[in-house]
Specification:
about 30% strand, homodimer, alpha+beta, 2 domains, about 250 residues, Alpha-Beta Plaits
């Protein structure tokens, strides 16, 4: 069996997230269906991790095993020709049998886009969160920096998620405001709990509005108490930018 | 009667262009309908000019007369609350009775976005034209520069348009390629014929592919022969960026 790694870009607006589930359109299902048609066998695709409903990806990675003799370029072109316009395989390569898209990933980079202006922007609405109130981005950046390092991120996970440990390591954060009122938060970590980036973003906006200080943000993280954190930011601003491997 | 100037941003994807027409959803109709509800009178909105079906605007301008006593901020907030998410009034001001959104405009700036990469990009698909073949952007920029000045632009107009003169003045052009494979063409002129920017763009892409030289591009413009120009580029890459007034 050959082992194939793919990089996938998708507009998550119309999908119930990555993971296949009964009665809902998902990215995994869309990819597995076209892969099966191109390779004429049942294909099971494993991603670096799930993305939630409405979340986008610039560089999600995944892998699958196949017995086809087709060159990878033909697999890519064939799948792209059958996929809906909101999903595309942007890169493909054959990898050693030992490669696993999830277990071998060293880090993931997420970006969250927020539009901070009094009036909403029709041309940005599909890909960012509109926040009217002026935001103190310096305070937000200070708060974001306190995420760096290894922490228990229970305060920023969605209820009902079931994982072995809630400790994760954040390698880098940045928060910047562009000239056209976009606020872009970027975070790189070895893994993320369910809704973790959106819970962080919702709480960072509380900092930006002056409802809490950067110090309180840090104490919320350290408390592990989800009830003290802010609302979960909406999905359309979130992008899985890149998955890095060792 | 008061005279009110508005700046409008819209995602033109779902609309049959600016101008009101029987049996088709247009930006003008959407705005006039909500204006009528807010001001409780029949409002006729005059734009700086039409945009075609599927074309977007970051800064379309328009004006209307009203006898309402409502402050402009209330008119703006009221209309925005009733408008669909793909249209918004981003600025509003009261102007002298003599102001006319169309006749007083000094220039318009259009931008055309093109994504030049072998594989399509799902996240860019709504707002640019995907061209797979590698493009020579230096040659395209040279060709674009020959548009500057006063010319008869008959070669770049859509058939069936009915205007007094086909002469227009182009004040500035630029064409640049970004690090992420976007090619952005910007053009400022005192006016544009129907489909002119998209016809120019289609012909510039012929230059980029090496099908014609920048010199041939110039001779096509000078010939005034629409049959020698390239195909009309698709609407989703075109944005009316700004309308400038004296």
């Amino acid at each position: 069996m050959r082992n194939i790694k793919i990089t996938v870009e998708y507009d998550g607006t119309a999908y119930s997230g990555w993971q296949r589930q009964e009665g809902a359109g998902t990215i995994q299902e869309a990819l597995e269906n076209v892969a099966g048609r191109i390779m004429q066998e049942t294909i099971r695709i494993v991603a670096s991790g799930r993305t939630d409903a409405g979340v986008h990806a610039l560089g999600q990675t995944a892998s699958f095993r196949t017995s086809t003799a087709l060159p990878v370029e033909r697999i890519q072109a064939g799948m792209n020709s059958l996929l809906s316009p909101d999903i595309a395989i942007t890169a493909i390569e054959e990898v050693p049998a030992s490669f696993h898209a999830r277990y071998d990933s060293a880090s993931k980079v997420y970006q969250y886009f927020l539009y901070n202006a009094p009036v909403r922007s029709p041309l940005r609405r599909r890909y960012c969160w509109h926040v009217r109130e002026p935001l103190d981005c310096e305070a937000m950046g200070l708060a974001a920096a306190s995420l760096r390092g290894r922490h228990d991120f229970s305060a920023f996970r969605s209820s009902g998620s079931d994982v072995k440990t809630t400790e994760r390591t954040v390698f880098a954060t940045s928060l910047l405001r562009s000239a056209d009122n976009m606020v872009i938060f970027e975070i790189e970590g070895d893994g993320f709990l369910r809704s973790m980036v959106r819970s962080i973003m919702g709480t960072l906006v509380d900092v930006g509005k002056g409802k809490i200080t950067p110090e309180t943000f840090r104490s919320i993280m350290e408390s592990g108490d989800r009830n003290r954190a802010g609302a979960t930011a909406p999905p359309q601003g979130l992008f899985l930018k890149e998955v890095r491997y060792r």
